[in-house]
Write a structure and sequence with these properties.
Number of strands: 19
Low-confidence stretches: 334-340
Strand content: 25-35%
Structural class: alpha+beta
CATH superfamily of the largest domain: ATPase, nucleotide binding domain
């Protein structure tokens, strides 16, 4: 396999993570652009994200991914063009392996291929692999020899569940449950109980700081926002229990989905999962207390890594490095003519 311009890409809803084989490193960029009212591009990536929730009415910050798939092809191309022009990131004509979400249509999967082939990237080849498989490899699991692995990827907008055996997916499911949904619930609850308006970024910080660990100390967290009664910016003390109450129903849905998929697995795989437990990946898995909550709610062992948000791209690193793992990814090039 060529050693130059080979990349593994995890194109998440809010962040792009890329492994560069030639440089043997991983870099990240926020998956976002900022445009003015005429549609002109003002900023992309990390610079655009710094503008989020801070722009005047004539500037819009756009996230071109929605629930793990490409929803705004033009703006994702704009972002890719910027990364190409930056010079220190992608090189045109490269070979790409890209992680795709579980439970997507072939058309949605094809959009990832088109993004790299029919754009300035001019990819020489594109392979895809299911994100659950990439996560499992990034977690250090031997997916090719395993008879049963359950991976739950808690992401920004989705929960992706994957049952893997012998290097392939047995079952998979994608649900519209993620960190951003949780943040909206926190915003709504704070507004309802305190007549206090906070942004999604503040809600995310509050969620990550408080987590869902059972805490009966009655502690509060100081956050900034706008008092809706007086219309002025101020700060308030928000009880940590309010955050947990905001997330209760959603977390119960996550557990129900996990157990439902496990129950659907064939008996032998079902037995292995009950014995070995489940593996948790994705940025939301960093939230304090989440693995422990799932353990208590399911009765299963829950395994994760120190940086669960990096599992997929770490798996892609191994896939592009090792020939035996590269065989798990598959090409869509044979259908190129139909999509040109």
């Amino acid at each position: 396999m060529a050693k130059h311009h080979v990349y593994g890409i995890d194109l998440g809803s809010y962040e792009i993570k890329v492994y560069d084989l030639e440089k043997d490193n991983i870099w990240t960029e926020k998956n976002v652009v900022a445009v003015d009212s005429s549609g002109a591009l003002l900023a992309v990536g990390d610079h655009a994200f710094a503008m989020y929730e801070k722009t005047p009415p004539d500037i819009e910050v756009v996230f071109p991914m929605h629930e793990g798939v490409i929803s705004d092809f033009q703006h994702i191309q704009d972002l890719l063009q910027y990364l190409l022009d930056a010079g220190s990131t992608f090189a045109a004509g490269g070979e790409y392996t890209i992680a795709v979400p579980a439970d997507v249509t072939e058309l949605e999967k094809r959009a990832f291929f088109d993004l790299l082939v029919h754009s300035s990237a001019k990819a020489r080849s594109v392979k895809v692999i299911e994100r659950g498989v990439a996560d499992a490899i990034g977690l250090g699991l031997d997916v090719q020899r395993s008879d049963g692995v359950f991976v739950a990827n808690f992401g920004g907008e989705t929960l992706e569940l994957s049952v893997i055996a012998a290097g392939g997916l047995v079952f998979n499911q994608r649900l519209p449950i993620g960190g951003r949904v949780m943040d909206r619930l926190i915003v709504e609850r704070v507004r309802h109980h305190y007549n206090f308006l906070i942004g999604l970024t503040t809600a995310e910080k509050l969620r990550m700081k408080v987590g869902i660990k059972d805490d009966r100390s009655g502690r509060t967290v100081k956050i900034a926002g706008r008092d809706l009664l007086y219309g002025v910016p101020t700060v308030k003390q928000i009880p940590a229990s309010l955050v947990r109450a905001s997330l209760k129903d959603l977390l119960e849905q996550c557990v129900e989905a996990i157990m439902s998929l496990i129950e659907r697995t064939p008996p032998e795989i079902h037995r292995i999962i009950l014995n070995d437990g489940i593996y948790v990946a994705g940025g939301l898995a960093r939230m304090t207390g989440l693995p422990q909550y799932i353990n208590r709610a399911t009765g299963l062992h829950v395994h994760t890594s120190r940086k669960p948000e990096m599992c997929s791209v770490r798996g892609l690193e191994q896939i592009v490095k090792l020939e035996e793992l590269n065989e798990l990814a598959y090409s869509m090039e044979e259908d190129t003519e139909r999509w040109a």
